[in-house]
Specification:
The protein is mostly helical. The chain is 85% helix and 0% strand.
């Protein structure tokens, strides 16, 4: 079926990425907590906590989208919901980049493209499955 390979491969990549990102997000959250404890003050840690929370939420959504994508490979009628999940992931990637810029980071076009490749191919595969 057309788009099935795109959807299956990107779904597996999203599952792997979601699990790794969740672990890293939890470690970051714990690291921020340790930093606040050592400093004795939580001043200025709000944006760090928000960024870590966004990373954890994004990774969970990415994991869910990956699981739904693998399921949609055998049931093409579910591909429509995969498009929505992919769009949510793209939006969260952009929000994450904006938060990074607000926090004082620099804009990286390469990072933006790399963060959007897998969700973009996921959406492409889901659209191909939906239209087939």
């Amino acid at each position: 079926m057309k788009g099935q390979k795109f959807l299956k491969v990107t779904s597996i990549l999203m599952i792997i990425g979601g699990v790794l990102a969740a672990i890293i997000g939890l470690l970051a959250f714990l690291g921020i907590s340790a930093l606040v404890a050592m400093a004795g003050s939580a001043e200025g840690a709000g944006l760090l906590y928000a960024s870590s929370a966004l990373a954890i939420v994004s990774s969970i959504i990415e994991l869910i989208a990956g699981i739904k994508g693998v399921g949609a490979c055998s049931a093409p009628q579910k591909a429509g919901s995969c498009v929505k999940w992919g769009i949510i992931i793209v939006a969260l990637s952009i929000v994450s980049m904006v938060i990074g810029l607000i926090a004082g980071g620099s804009f990286s076009f390469t990072s933006l493209v790399l963060n959007l490749i897998v969700p973009g191919l996921y959406i492409y595969g889901a659209i191909q499955m939906k239209n087939a």
